[in-house]
Design goal:
about 140 residues; alpha+beta; Nucleoside Triphosphate Pyrophosphohydrolase; eight-stranded mixed sheet; 3 helices; about 30% helix; disordered C terminus
């Protein structure tokens, strides 16, 4: 199955630090990055941005391409392509698929994510920031 999503981020309105948007899916009772199945013939980036809008209510400005995750879902192979994407305008409205979102700083976001594979995406997002600022200076 082909899917796509985004590591959606923003600068905190309070301190300006990076925050990540995580979505809670009641069907699975899990916390993850916004993502979903591609429609027939849909380009992966377009699908990722559509899923962000549907699940979070926010527009997204895509940035760097991130790792593609491969895993089994219900015993079938699944491939999810990810991009970093900065949140634009919007407002979350709970729906059947996503009942809550959280904006969390990196450590809290890593801890809240249900699947360890999703945590690697935050690490990948942050790696260039750590290289620029050096250890302990972010």
């Amino acid at each position: 199955m082909e899917a796509a999503g985004c590591v959606l981020w923003r600068r905190s309105p309070v301190g300006g630090e990076v925050e990540f948007c995580l979505v809670h899916r009641p069907k699975y009772d899990d916390w993850s990055h916004p993502k979903g199945k591609l429609k027939r013939g849909e380009e992966p980036l377009a699908g990722a941005l559509r899923e962000v809008a549907e699940e979070t209510g926010y527009a997204a400005d895509p940035g760097n391409r991130l790792t593609t995750l491969h895993y089994l879902a219900n015993g079938r192979p699944k491939q999810v392509r990810y991009w970093a994407a900065e949140a634009g305008g919007g407002r979350f409205v709970p729906n059947d698929e996503v009942d809550r979102i959280l904006w969390l700083p990196p450590v809290a976001a890593r801890d809240r994510l249900t699947q360890p594979r999703d945590r690697t995406l935050i690490d990948e997002f942050l790696a260039p920031l750590h290289q620029r600022t050096g250890p302990g200076r972010h």
